[in-house]
From TrEMBL:
GO terms for molecular function: ATP binding. Belongs to the ABC transporter superfamily. It is a peripheral membrane protein. Coiled coil: none annotated. This is ABC transporter ATP-binding protein. SUPFAM superfamilies: P-loop containing nucleoside triphosphate hydrolases. Keywords: ATP-binding, Cell membrane, Membrane, Nucleotide-binding, Transport. It holds the Pfam family ABC_tran. Residues 7-255 form the ABC transporter domain. The lineage of its organism: Bacteria, Bacillati, Bacillota, Bacilli, Bacillales. PROSITE patterns: ABC_TRANSPORTER_1, ABC_TRANSPORTER_2. InterPro entries: AAA+_ATPase, ABC_Ni/Peptide_Import, ABC_transporter-like_ATP-bd, ABC_transporter-like_CS, Oligopep_ABC_C, P-loop_NTPase. The keyword Nucleotide-binding applies. It is found in: Cell membrane. It comes from Sporolactobacillus kofuensis.
Amino acid sequence: MNDILSVNHLSIGFDHSYGHTSVIDDISFNIEKGQTLCIVGESGCGKSLTSLAVMGLLPSGGRIHDGQIVYKGQDISRKSQKELSEIRGKEISMIFQEPMTALNPLHSIGYQVSEVLRVHQKVSKHEAKEKAIEMLRLVGIPSPEKRFAQYPHELSGGMRQRVMIAMALICHPGLLVADEPTTALDVTIQAQILELIQNLKSQFDMALLLITHDLGVVSETADKVVVMYAGQVVEYGDTKELFTEPKHPYTKGLINSIPKMDEDTEVLPTIKGSVPSPDEMPMGCRFVTRCPFAMEICSKIKPPKITDGHEVHCWLYSSEDVKGENPSVDKV
Ligand code: SF4
Ligand code: MG
């Protein structure tokens, strides 16, 4: 197998004085070398938390309760922060939604890019500066020698995101994690940044874990897609197959809500309702409160994983006898 990252049965929860809340429940997926995998779903489905877990950056109170995160054959889910800090930025890097929060306003951009290299590799200050300038040039910063000494506030949002990408890639990581990397940018800049990420991904032969709620982006960039709903994987497979033959009612709802160029629709269909909060998860299928195909069993028992071409977690595709107890399955 050529997996660079494999997430196996990962469960994450938060401990409180009054108990425990499970947020991510038994998710599994894998990314091969050089592949792009997108995680999609509405806000609150656990996409960002999954990406933070891969980085070993869970927010305080968050804990991995079960499962593994395996990077290049090593389980990194139980490593100490010290061990993780050697992997972060060097082997696995991340770019965030809002570059201003990730950049230090008190240091020049050149200093911040070269510092990443100096933390992970034994290079002289001069060599780090040369490489940082080269990297800034690669991400499309004009006149990087001059820009080197500028501070984050002197740059536009798009330029700051380019600096973040330079910091993320200067050590040539094997995996880049990007959480909604263009959401905070102007629409015109979004496409440029995505294209830049795609180009650098091929150039650096990295794998990409891209978190997005934009299915248009997914169809253009991803090799594989994980659809998450309320902390669980509901569908997982090759992009082309998933788009041409979506199986889960939630995935179908997401795909139906993409604007189509050739149709003059005024109102796009949306999925009614909202994602339940972790404290109010329905029993059985978590999508049951919003699903037009819900059957009796759906509110009682967690749907099984069915692999038919690709993976789907839904009672509609189960051949178990138990499904027969409700005739509404005919609706499909
Ligand atoms: Fe809908 Fe039932 Fe499938 Fe859940 S398991 S998505 S409620 S049909
Ligand atoms: Mg998020």
